[in-house]
Write a structure and sequence with these properties.
With about 425 residues, the chain is an all-beta fold. It contains two helices and 28 strands. The longest helix is centred in the middle third of the chain and has 7 residues.
């Protein structure tokens, strides 16, 4: 289990990319993967014409190439992978998405927002993710600071577009870097924003929020956010010099945290620990490094990937791929001595309970279905359940019946039930009821 660094998959080595390339997005579109990122060769040029938006393409999410698009002249040549240029400050933080709204016109399959507090967020559209045009001249939304990646997407669950964008808790540039949300039915007019809440947790600087509808369960929004720790310095001046880090970019450090939301103005921050820790090596402990790209995508039958910008402000700036098991964002783990966990009361639709879980050779898991008051339901008790052993992404749970076993739970659909898991030396990653 866990998140594994699979190493650098893309180096920002072209003259128009450089040490300050960032604000990445990865989109999977029918077997074609697109990587978007800001090209910025030097510090202190935020919001200027030095910034471009670039794209790389892949057929598997593992190997990436720059297409020669011939769209924009950079450094005297059109032989490059630049998709937006000379539209500052849109190119500072352009954040695109594949629009899954039913009936979306072919010319607007891809949409995106970019801009700063002076310009507001400006909307673009594209038929193919490569050739982009403004949807309208004036900004579509102005009520924010926007000094980060401002992400948007179509929510199937809420039947509207959502945008999660940068605000500051103290207004202007004071307090904590935080997140607000606005919604729209047409991508052009947006609601009065709401400040996102994080439950009973201490406030932290969240630099990019990277909120998106999780591709396996789009009613759940996953945010793999960059947590920024200003003034928390690991490198000395000599270290920075040796690594070639820009002098303004080594007095802080950052990592990635995992948040979720099911709509509305609240995030769940059950996990205050780092989701991805900075790696071994001082190059990972510089300011604004370890910023996750937007979106988690599937890269194998049982694997999904998340991409992270590393070695920021250094000549070695690159994008790393991190692999996870499918749906393996978090798990309930039991040791060799075993343990139980019981869900809150739920109702479900479907005929089969499927688990994503992993056991040792000695471990295993069983499930009991209970009434809301905690009493076992006849035929679905712990002793009726066939022990599940193995490593599965989607494994049906079965209970013993006269003359065999059955996975059919349809007789309980619509009733209030609890699930009680008994686990030994195993990880339970996800569950679902399936028709």
């Amino acid at each position: 289990g866990g998140v594994r660094d699979e190493g650098a998959v893309f180096h920002f080595t072209e003259a128009w990319e450089g040490p300050f390339a960032g604000y990445s997005t990865v989109i999977e579109d029918g077997g074609r993967y697109l990587l978007y990122y800001r090209g910025l060769p030097r510090a202190g040029a935020d919001g200027t014409a030095l910034e471009t938006t670039c794209v790389a393409l892949s057929s598997d999410g593992l190997h990436w190439e720059r297409p020669s698009l011939g769209l924009h002249e950079v450094n005297g040549s059109k032989e490059n992978n630049v998709i937006l240029a000379d539209v500052a400050p849109v190119t500072h933080n352009f954040s695109p998405f594949l629009d899954s709204r039913p009936g979306v016109p072919a010319a607007q399959r891809f949409k995106g927002l970019g801009g700063n507090e002076h310009s507001g967020l400006i909307a673009f559209a594209s038929p193919d993710g490569l050739k982009w045009t403004r949807i309208q001249e004036e900004a579509v939304f102005r009520d924010g600071m926007f000094d980060s990646q401002n992400v948007s997407f179509w929510s199937e669950a809420e039947s509207r577009y959502l945008c999660y964008f940068r605000t500051w808790s103290g207004g202007s540039y004071s307090g904590f870097r935080t997140v607000s949300r606005t919604t729209s039915e047409d991508f052009l007019s947006w609601t009065k924003p709401e400040v996102m809440s994080f439950g009973e947790t201490p406030q932290e600087h969240l630099y990019t929020n990277q909120t998106h509808a999780y591709f396996r369960a789009p009613h759940i929004y996953v945010a793999v956010a960059a947590r920024f720790m200003p003034g928390r310095q690991v490198l000395s001046g000599e270290d920075a010099l040796r690594l070639g880090v820009n002098p303004k970019y080594f007095s802080d450090c950052s990592d990635a945290v995992l948040m979720t939301s099911r709509g509305g103005s609240s995030y769940d921050r059950s996990f205050m620990e780092a989701f991805i820790r900075p790696g071994v090596g001082l190059e990972n402990w510089v300011s604004r490094s370890n910023y996750p790209a937007l979106n988690i995508v599937q890269t194998g039958p049982a694997e999904m990937s998340l991409y992270v910008n590393q070695n920021y402000a250094q000549p070695t700036a690159a994008l790393h791929r991190y692999s996870m098991r499918l749906d393996g964002l978090a798990s309930i783990r039991a040791g060799r001595s075993g343990g139980t966990v019981t869900t809150r009361p739920v109702t479900f639709e479907g005929e089969t309970l499927e688990l994503n879980f992993s056991t040792s050779a000695a471990g295993g898991g069983r499930v009991e279905l209970q009434r809301a008051d905690g009493t076992p339901i006849e035929g679905f008790g712990l002793s009726d359940c066939v022990e599940q052993i193995g490593n599965w992404i989607e494994q049906p749970v079965t209970w013993r019946r006269e003359g065999g076993v059955s996975s059919d739970v349809s007789t309980l659909a619509g009733e209030v039930v609890r699930l009680r898991f008994h686990l030994v030396d195993s990880d339970l990653y996800a569950m679902r009821f399936r028709k």
